[in-house]
Amino acid sequence: MLELVALSAQDMPVPIPVQVRYFKKVFAYDKTVPRENIKLLVVYGDATPTDVREELVEAFNSIGIRATAVKSSQLASAGADVNVVYAAPGSDIRIIKEFCRTNGVLSISGLPNLATNGDVSIAINAVNDMPKVIVNPDRLKIEKQDAADLMRLR
Fold first, then answer.
1. How far apart are CA 95 and CA 63, in angstroms?
2. Rounded to an integer, what distance in angstroms lies between the CA atom of residue 30 and that of residue 14?
3. Which stretch of DSSP H or E encloses residue 83?
4. What is the structure's pLDDT at 148?
5. Which residue in 7, 102, 129, 151 has the most C-beta neighbors within 10 A?
6. How far is CA 11 from CA 1, 5, 30, 51, in A?
7. What is the dihedral of CA 96, 34, 130, 125, to 10 degrees?
8. Residue 2: pLDDT above 60?
9. Is 139 in contact with 37 (CB distance < 8 Å)?
10. Which residue ranges make up each domain of the chain?
11. Does residue 6 carry a pLDDT above 50?
């Protein structure tokens, strides 16, 4: 049984441009993520709206984070120099979890329930119309992240 995240951009409580700016700040708290030349993959699936995938890639690239999109089924061959994986709506979370665990890669998403459920390490939620970082410390350990400072963001 596939474990797909069958949601759309409307299910992300924080607009993509705001998420991206917050994630860039969050990366500074994770000593495993390089300060420069971050390589980020937006992982998508058949159910991911094309405009969401394109907006995510464009938004990360616009703030200096090298982002490309890759289908869930192609993630394993994406390369070893990946620092961060963004789980887009419609992606196969099982594949993302395994890739990040095996390769020590940070997983993030704009879907807060994924961090709450332990599927990704970090997500962005909206609380009282303000962005709030959701951190899953167990997932951070699984992904071998040196991010003790992230606990202050919870």
1. 27
2. 22
3. none
4. 74
5. 7
6. 23, 11, 27, 14
7. 10
8. no
9. no
10. 9-144
11. no
Are 49 and 90 in contact, with CB atoms under 8 Å apart? yes
Specify the pLDDT at position 79: 72
What pLDDT is attached to residue 16?
Answer: 96
Sheet with 122-127, edge to edge strand ranges: 66-71, 39-44, 84-87, 106-109, 122-127, 130-135
* pLDDT greater than 60 at residue 31: yes
| Contact yes or no for 12/111 (Cβ under 8 A) | yes
How far apart CA 135 and CA 154 sit, in angstroms, is: 6
- Reply yes or no on whether the pLDDT at 89 is more than 70: yes
Rounded to 5 degrees, φ, ψ at 69 are -110, 140
Residue 7 has pLDDT above 70, yes or no: no
Residue 148 identity (one-letter amino acid): A
Q: Which residues in 117-134 are b (16+ Cβ under 10 Å) and which e?
A: eebbbbbbbeeeeeebbb
The pLDDT tens digits of the residues spanning 35-57 come to: 899 999 999 999 999 999 999 99
